[in-house]
Amino acid sequence: MTETEHVKCLIIGSGPAGYTAAIYASRANLFPVLYQGLQPGGQLTITNDVENYPGYPDGINGPQMMEDFKKQAERFGTDVRYGIATEVDFSGKPHKVTIDGNKVITADTVIISTGASAKWLGLESEARLNGNGVSACAVCDGFFYRGQDVAIVGAGDTAAEEATYLANLCKKVYMIVRRHEMKASVIMQERVKNTPNIEVLWNTVTDEILGTDVVNAVRVKNLVTNEMREIPVQGFFVAIGHQPNSDIFKKYLEHDENGYLRTIPGTSKTNIDGVFACGDVQDFMYRQAVTAAGSGCMAALDAERYLAAQGIH
């Protein structure tokens, strides 16, 4: 038989948004239950130094920051659990969410903070060598390539940050950029340009990652000259953006063409009463830890007010 449990406030996903929502919901006596999802702590668990979050003048390690958020949420009474939401039914009330395919949680309010996941290039060799030289997390795996040559593909802030991080560990970093310019912020571009062991390959795409069991080179193509070039590397990192983890909600919740959940401007409210979205699953613009945390606060406050209006105590 399927196990069923009713809660007043269910939070799906962790990270700055989910944990902040949990802190506020707990303090409002909503007795939240939070399921951490596939990546407990969210994207910050693959970020080494967080330097732009207020209150940390010397910066903080991303995983440690998320552990602090979790402890704070638990201190106020949040029930933090391992588990993945596999199905939802928002067609009636209470809302129904299936966890791990075998447990149904009915909830008066649901806060979605499932975040976003790394995008991949889609190469066969990328999938085959994933974990054997191919990675989407420089902070997680950069240590294994200390003193070696690596390549990273991407042109945004994440790619620039990870390239400079790798440059502190590796002998040489090749940064593969499709266009003649980067999308990264000016300060991050300056860091890349001022790092002597980063070589930017402009107007270049990845044709293939080479190696039988492990990565030993990358073949790239210059889009201006059509020249192919093989570069010996031992690691290949992908930093080309993210996609929102919103698939299971799309049947019921409005979303944009890229899958980001739509919320009513100035709120965390979705098109379904009692269902709220916060963090990167609904934020395609800013995608920062501090904005995710702020939206998590909004979601908890919106949930509290919704429950009060419904007379649910």
UniProtKB/TrEMBL annotation:
Instruction: Tell me which residues make up the FAD/NAD(P)-binding domain.
Output: 8-296
Report the gene name.
Answer: trxB
Q: What is the lineage of its organism?
A: Bacteria, Pseudomonadati, Bacteroidota, Cytophagia, Cytophagales
Q: Does the keyword Nucleotide-binding apply?
A: no
Q: What name appears for this protein in its UniProt entry?
A: Thioredoxin reductase
Please name the source species: Adhaeribacter terrigena
Catalytic activity field? [thioredoxin]-dithiol + NADP(+) = [thioredoxin]-disulfide + NADPH + H(+)
Domain of life, per UniProt, equals Bacteria
Question: According to the UniProt entry, what is the EC number of this protein?
Answer: 1.8.1.9
Q: Name one GO molecular function term.
A: thioredoxin-disulfide reductase (NADPH) activity
